[in-house]
Each structure stands twice: as C-alpha cells, then as structure tokens.
C-alpha cells in the first residue's frame, strides 16, 4: 500500500468517526423545539414523586375521579405568597429571580382569582423557590406545596441558568403552572401518544438531563389517571407540554419528526386556569350569619364565598351539612389582604367539613367553599353558630 493510499484510508476512517459522532448527537442530543439549529438539548422539568391518593372501598370510582381532578387545586381567591432563598446553596442572582417574577406576571395577566405576592419572610410563603444548580427544574403540584414539604424546604427549584435558556420566561411559567395544580400535558391519557420507549429512555438519559429510567418514566411515559385531567382534549401546545425531538414519538404520525409547542400559554391553558380560578367580585359575597343555614348548590369544581362579620367575640363552629365533598377555608380580611385562619377537607370521607375557631367582633372574615362532588340529589348547606 502506498503512502498516499494509507493517508486516504486514515482520512476516511477519521471522517467515518466524525460522522458517527454527529449521528449520535443528532439521535440523542437534538434540542426539542430547536432541532434544526443544532443546539444542545434542553433541560426538562422533573416533578417530585408523591404517594398516590388512595380511597376507602366505599368511595365510588366516579367520586374518586372528581376528587383527583380537583383535589390539588387551591380554593379560588387564595393569595399564593412566594419566597426566594436569599443566601446559601439555594440562592440565585437577581437576574434569575426577575425571570421567575415575570413568570408569575404571565399567569396574573390572564385575569384570575388567584393572587401572587413576593415575601421576604420564608414562614409566610406557600411557594419557596431555590436555584440549586444541577438539581433540575421542578415544583410540587398545587396543594401538595403545603401538604408535603416541611416548613422551610423548597417547593420549587431552577437548576440551571435561566438567562441562557432559549425558552426564556416559559420555563418558570411551566413550573408555576404546576404550583397552580396543573400536571404535565404530554402525560394526558387521552393524547394517544405511542412512544418509542427505548429511544425516550436513551434521550432523557443523556446530557443535560441524565435521568435514570424511573425518572423518565415518571415524567414522560407514565400516563396520568383519567381522573387527573379534564375531558378528553389533548393540548400539544400547552405550556405544560414538553417539546420532543424526532424519533421519540411513533404515533400520532405527524409528530414522528418532533413535537414543538408554540410557546407561551395556549388557549386551553387560559380556559383551564379560568375554569378553576375565575375573577372574583368580593362585593357580591353573601353574609353568613349565626344560626342561619345557607344552601350550597354546587357542581364539582364550583365554589361559593361568604362574608362573616361577627357581632361578638367568642368561639364559633362553621360546618357543612349534606352529602357533599368539600374543602372549606377561612380567611381574615386585613384591609383587603386575606390571611389564612383555618380550613378543613372532607373529601373521600363520610364526614362533613368543620372548623372551630375564635372570631373577633369588628373584624371581617371570608369563608370559601369548593365542591369536589355532590353525592346525592338533596341539597347541602353551611351554617355558622
């Protein structure tokens, strides 16, 4: 073999190795949403694992479905206070925080009954936001934020530099969507997605996510229970939907070359958040007076709000009556700022919600009652005494 042919053989061998590396990069690390650009793959949200809610055998499948669908949503009118860790390993720079603040503004600007407030005291916050690098992006879903983490622990994290992410504010908008109670849309059981499962495991097991198979299954391949989503309409443009590179989805066939949500809140995102959290007119609340029953004609996910103006300072009981699954929450009105006082949740139990609390003359309180399911044709009611 001549020296020239040896050089040519060597060059061909090197070229083949380069092609193999390029193909591997295309197969594993093409960025969802920017597949044509050749950028590195995006980081993705990995939700914390929480134990599934279980019910007594006496709870019917329909009742359980309604409770799962509504159960993680906040009562409408709640003010969610968020806190940024200011020092230590969970702290983040001001520019990072500002992008997250913009995410809250996106949801606020939809015009909903939920309010947001940044606070400097961690003990006041339902949402506690860290920036621990390398820990991924994640959030607890809805009321899991207050039911599961211990006080002072993070309930949301951003584990990479948001300033360098081409998705911009959509990253915190997605995580705040979880905090409002919304799951991953690509796990909608009505989506009809058929995955190339091994390709999915390989993709998410590669940098920058480096997920193990269990994490990939929990956040991508696992189908949500039908009771956790509304109706049967899948929304591939939802802010709660991942983008997926080519070769991960087998069906529907139109997404075999990749699925790329449009970005921002979709029309269905807006309609869903307004369904659970419509704007509230606090001037229209019925006054709940002692020993006077008020009828609760509530369909699942509907809510009634009452004003309470005690005429005497003493201990009171507030309770629901009838076969109705509800969550009730009492707030004290501090010049328009509602502070949580007490609450109870009777869902999935053969009990009624009840609060025993001391109320003060001259103060104003707001009682919010959200229905999960109505178990009988008779009317339910609420009373204060």
* Quaternary structure type: single chain
Radius of gyration: 25 Å
Q: What's the tally of helices?
A: 8
What summary fits the major beta sheet? 5 strands, mixed
The CATH architecture designation of the largest domain is 3-Layer(aba) Sandwich
Q: SSE order in H/E notation?
A: HHEHEEEHEHEHHEHEEEEEEEEE
Q: How many domains?
A: 2
Apparent shape: globular
Gap between N and C termini: 102 Å
Stated plainly, the CATH topology of the largest domain is called Collagenase (Catalytic Domain)
Q: What is the CATH superfamily classification of the largest domain?
A: Collagenase (Catalytic Domain)
How much β-strand is present in the residues? 15-25%
By secondary-structure content and strand pairing, the structural class works out as alpha/beta
Mean pLDDT: 87
Measured as a percent range, the helix fraction is: 10-25%
CATH class of the largest domain: Alpha Beta
Poorly predicted regions: 1-8, 14-39
Number of strands: 16
